[in-house]
Amino acid sequence: MISPSHIHPIILAAGSSRRLAELTTDKPKSFLKVGNKRVIEYHLGALNNLGFDKVTIVVGYLRELFVKTVGNKYGNLNIGYVVSEDYATTGHSWSLFLTKDAWEKEKKPVLLIHADVLNHPDILSRVIFSEEDSIISIDNAYTINTGDECLVRGEKGKVISIEFNNKEKEKIKGEFIGVGKFSTEFMERFYEFLQKFFEKMGKNLN
Q1: Global model pTM greater than 0.85
Q2: Which of 132, 115, 109, 80 is nearest to 190 (CA)?
Q3: Alpha-carbon Rg of the chain, whole angstroms?
Q4: Per-residue pLDDT tens over the stretch 126-175
Q5: No. of H helices and E strands in the chain?
Q6: What is the pLDDT of residues 66-97, one digit of tens each?
Q7: Residue 51 and residue 153 in contact, taking contact as beta carbons nearer than 8 Å
Q8: Which of 6, 95, 109, 206 is deepest in the core (most CB within 10 A)?
Q9: How far apart are CA 104 and CA 164, in angstroms?
Q10: What is the DSSP string of 20-31?
Q11: CB 153 within 8 A of CB 159
């Protein structure tokens, strides 16, 4: 079983919110509160409780407020930041690619968390401690509400594709719910793929 000390958590928190724009004019989307805590605090608290000692957060929209409010420490969790200057015109893939230098310092498996998706801590634990080297969380009882749901197509327990707003339902297993674990080997190859993709296509096509 993998230990938290052998995993590099990365939280993607750079984007602004178009659908919730009226609620996020003065705060990042992950600063919205559920109960008495910000969404980002649920993520950091869960990582801290599971024994992680460091996390990398990609910030962009209102990043000064983010860094000032969250700081560099949450419990025993040391927080490092990567800045996406082009958050308004890029997406998750670019944000992840920007963490390449930080990741290469230790080259560990990655726990990827989307900052604006709130999940039960048990989902996070099941992903972390799964025997699978690379695994993502999905909701197989999803419904289409906004048209930009991130749908996972798969077969025999393997992911074929992750795509947005595809009306073709064949082999759709569920909606990605923002938590995944990826092996060192996968990340090495994925960073290489992203670099070639962005060099060829530009960073605004993800």
Answers
A1: yes
A2: 109
A3: 16
A4: 999 999 999 999 999 888 777 778 899 999 889 999 887 666 778 899 99
A5: 6, 11
A6: 999 999 999 999 999 999 999 999 999 999 99
A7: no
A8: 95
A9: 30
A10: TGGG-SSS-GGG
A11: yes
